[in-house]
Amino acid sequence: MYEKRSWAGFYLIVLLTGLSFLPLRSLKFDFNSESFFPDGDPDLVFFQEFREQFSSQVDDEFIFIGLKNNKGIFDQGFLAKADSLSRFISRQDHILKLYSLTTTNLIYFNGKDVNARPLIHTSDPSQYKADSAYLFASPEYRDLLVSKDGRSIAIAAFNQQHLDNRQKDRLLGSIRQKTEELGFDETHITAKIRVERVYISEIEKNLQKYLVISLTLIALVLYILFRSLKAILIPLMIIGVSIAWTLSLISLTGHSLDIISSLLPPILAAICMSDVIHISTHYIEKLRQGLPKQEALHKTYQEIGMATFFTCCTIAAGFLTLGITDIIPIRNFGFFAAAGILLSFGLTLVALYAYYTLTPAPAVVTAAGADRRWNKWLAWCFRFLLGNKLLLFLLMAVLAGLAGFYSSKVEVNSSLLQEIPRNNPMLDDYRFMERDFSGTRTFEMALTIQKQPGSFFQPEIMKEAAEVEQFLKDSCGIGYIISPLSLFRGANKAFHGGDTGYFKLPGSPEEVSRYYEAITQTEYADELQHYLLPDGSRIRISGRQPNLSVKEFEPVKEKIDRFFRGKNYAFAHRISGSALLLDKMTYSLTNNLFTGIFFDALVICIIALLLLRNWIVMLIILIPNVLPLVFMAGMMGLMGINLKADTSVIFAIALGLAVDDSIHFLSRLRLELSRGLSLAYAVKRTYLSTGKAIVITALVLLSGFMTLLASSFGGTFYVGLLISLCLFFAMLLELTLTPLLILLLLKMKSGNKPRSLSNKEIDTPNQL
User: Would strands 186-191 and 62-68 be described as parallel, antiparallel, or unpaired?
Assistant: First the structure.
């Protein structure tokens, strides 16, 4: 009967695994920075309204190309190549618009006649001197498309939204190939779609590294534990199937793998191996007690099955607490991780039962030498604990104090480009744009009329808006500023024959009305709609900044707010844009940090009460598992690691992982107490029997998370480092603080004075 059940379970696993490969074929890798915007946030609601009013999403999809000529930009060969590149890009599929000095025409009026001439006469070097003087006297071109040192120009192109990966690669590839053919002194390309493609490429490479390294390390630990190749293959197969099922679930629900969800395979591998090790070591222990194979297997599932289920629930709860965040990719990561953990738990129970039923007892059962060494070492550790209780409590208090001190130094800060590998050539391009042009971080501001009657068609209100623009440029370092004021200045200049001295705002309502009508009749009509509402109630000011981090942008934002508080303008301001929302993502996640830890701790306390039905147990389980989080935060402060999107989610996850061993320890303690043993003996037996599994499980979990140290993403590297440190601290505290707290707090509650164990009693693990 047992064999029939085992074969049925085996066939079911094979069937489900085969079916899982169908959706796996359509699994995609994706990265969209906008998916990280805080869902339901008031700033997101305003941004969506702002984007709908001005169609500003077009300007978010930029391709900015910097071309440098060491001889200066007024070189015929250079300008001819720049013009060739500009016209080539404008002909590419998915390009909506393009701005370039060599393709720009000046429109001006001569009486009632409309005239146009090239801004730069590319093919006529005799006019370069006049063109140069005119260009550098025209801020509308000089400030946007010419570098600060005058030796580089920029081509600004804008592509369609929602391109697939193949379209992005084709577009970027064609531009890169054309620039190489033309042979500029320097070429630098920055683009939103390029950042997205770099992220996707790194995600794919990292996922392969995670799997290879984690499976290799886990196989090594398994071989050391069981000394059998066959015993390695079965757990590795369980890991592989668990990962396949989880990735299949992601694909079935229509989601893709991103920078966050790509962490799932090594995490699932480590957690799955934890269940395998606890069940396998308990099964081997029963066999060594002389029980028949099937009886040993049944007792293993009876005695440790519920504890394994509880640990699975606490770890899943740690990930599910990420569901409280308003960042959708983080929320999805939490749900899929929890689902993968539950799937791997069920798979492990069925697969191990079938494997141990259908195969002979493991050969490691007869190799008792290693087990005696473990018992001897654990007995020495337990004896050391009992003899140095005060010293250990004092040491923990000092370390906790130091960790608390350094925890206070942790800062909230992040930047999208911080995640890009430092050796990636794209970073050089972004640094060039920040040095020679205005930068690549988008800046968006809305000015909305508050005092009625009022309108941005009124010259006096236009002048107030011009003050704001000048402040942003001079005091906030914001460049590449574009607004409807630029178009009205340009129209004023055009109506005065293109004289650069008239690049200023119109002085009367009649001029404003006249220029507005003229602009709507030209190619700039669409551009005006991107920056001015038809009723004049709101305008948009856009610009570019260096790639400021969250912390660096805060003073800029505060400076802008102070500026407006000191004014009595007819309009109110509001900063918006994708960069601001990505900053808010960081604050949103860190604000949810303690909420996630609280809910995770609540689940842990409930499970602890179910295990021993004793309120004191909550302290016993929380103290050794919260302290590693404090130590981890202290390490962040000591090493200067910031709280951001990825590092802020690790606390709830780490707490769920760290409590794994505590639940197994308390579950075994309950079993020993149910046999009528005194508390002291029950703790001793629990320590000697679970100590080996605690150490091995910690090593397996560490091997899984330390694979993240191979990541090319800075944030993922720190996730692996910090969780590994937390798990290491948790293992040490489980082997030191937990047994001491049990002996101290449970004895105090019972009112009995604890009896000291003799060395002989400690060294004899099977003594009752």
Answer: antiparallel
Read off the pLDDT of residues 508-525 as tens digits, 9 standing for 90 and up.
Answer: 999 999 999 988 888 788
The pLDDT value given to residue 578:
84
Report the C-alpha gap between 124 and 665 in whole angstroms. Answer: 85
For the chain, which ranges sit under pLDDT 70? 1-2, 33, 111-112, 225-227, 363-371, 416, 418-419, 611-612, 747-768
Which two structure tokens, joined as six digits, stand for 31? Answer: 């990265």
Burial class, 298, CB count within 10 angstroms (exposed 0-12 / middle 13-18 / buried 19+): middle
pLDDT for the residue 757: 46
**Sign of dihedral through CA atoms 730, 735, 736, 739?**
positive
- Nearest-angstrom CA–CA distance, 738 and 385: 11
534 DSSP assignment? T
8 A C-beta contact, residue 708 and residue 260: no
Residue 108: which H helix or E strand, with range? strand 105-110
Domain residue extents for the chain: 1-30+227-366, 61-197, 371-408+592-768, 428-577
Residue for token pair 């740690």: 318
Which CATH superfamily is 1-30+227-366 part of? Answer: Multidrug efflux transporter AcrB transmembrane domain (1.20.1640.10)
User: How many residues are given for the chain?
Assistant: 768
The three-state secondary structure class of 446 is strand
406 CB-near residues (< 8 Å, 6+ apart) = 633, 634, 635, 636, 637, 638
Q: State the Cα–Cα distance between residues 254 and 257, nearest whole angstrom.
A: 10
**Distance of alpha carbon 148 from alpha carbon 155, whole angstroms:** 15
Q: How far is residue 307 from each of residues 38, 172, 218, 468, 606, measured CA to CA in Å?
A: 37, 54, 23, 64, 13
In CATH terms, the fold of domain 371-408+592-768 is Multidrug efflux transporter AcrB transmembrane fold (1.20.1640)
Per-residue pLDDT tens for 52-101? 999 888 888 889 999 999 989 999 999 999 999 999 999 999 999 999 99
Taking residue 409's Cβ as centre, other Cβ atoms within 10 Å add up to 12
Q: CA–CA separation, 716 vs 416, rounded Å?
A: 13
The structure tokens listed for 380 are 């020495």
Q: Judge residue 254's burial from the number of C-beta atoms within 10 Å of its C-beta, 0-12 exposed, 13-18 middle, 19 or more buried.
A: exposed
Burial of 750 (0-12, 13-18, 19+ CB in 10 A): exposed
**Fold matches, 1-30+227-366 and 371-408+592-768:** yes
Virtual torsion, Cα 117, 118, 123, 128, nearest 10 deg:
100
What gap in Å lies between CA 740 and CA 733, rounded to an integer?
10
